Amino acid sequence: MAVLERHLVLYRRLWRASVFSSFVLPVLFLISIGIGVGGYVGEIGGVDYLAWIVPGVMASTAFQMAIGESTYSVLGDFKWVRSYHAMRATPVGIGDMVVGRLLYVLLRVEIAAIVFLGITGLFGALHSAWAVLTPVVAALVALSAAAPVTAFAASIEHDSYFALLFRFVMIPSTLFAGVFFPVAQLPDLVRPLAYVSPLWHGVELSRAATLGVAPPWPVWAHVGYLVVCSAAGLWWAYAAFGKRLQD
């Protein structure tokens, strides 16, 4: 909780810089694509494009926020600010550092998801009462992304690796995870790559909740995949932080 408090104190001074990307940009994107482009697309799966794309945009926002909050700030606290080295000189342990940071990321994501959910509800884009579970799905997506990326950031020495992460992981995941069009439209050779992404599982769970339909896989399979990714990322993060701070 002390580590979480430290991140919240910092965010209290910097929150204005994230308002546009966390709250305004997703809504503008939803209006321009969901309503603007949706007027040309029509319906997908028997529902209007706005209602179909809302859960995808919510899940992808959580995914991108989680990655963004787990890159430069983590490396910076190791290499430039050396905050984690200062924490190591106190009773704060490795687990406290990792869990405290991830709790902060989850809090950021949950606030954005709840605000986004309320705004999309005003547009009539929610077709089921199960939509109230989408913030939980957003949290799972965020954790499955933030945990391994936090570990990755703790393992590298130069921030140039983040460009590779954004270019070859985050952007392809967003484009080919069923956010903007059904994964079934992808070539058979490419489609399994979508299934590997935690974002696809989050998108399908969110879409099932907002539309009141069954996801393509059983719910337990989607949730289980996200939990496994999160657990593996946590294990890697513990190991990476411990190795980086062992001296």
Automatic annotation (TrEMBL):
Asked if the record carries the keyword Transmembrane, the reply is: yes
Where, by residue number, does the polypeptide cross the bilayer? 20-42, 49-67, 111-130, 136-154, 161-183, 219-241
State if Flavoprotein is listed as a keyword.
no
Q: What would you give as a GO molecular function for this chain, any one?
A: ABC-type transporter activity
Note the topology in the membrane: Multi-pass membrane protein
Q: Which UniProt keywords apply?
A: Antibiotic resistance, Cell membrane, Membrane, Transmembrane, Transmembrane helix, Transport
Q: Name one GO biological process term.
A: response to antibiotic
Q: What are the annotated GO cellular component locations?
A: ATP-binding cassette (ABC) transporter complex
Q: What is this protein called?
A: Transport permease protein
In its UniProt entry, the species of origin is given as Streptosporangium album
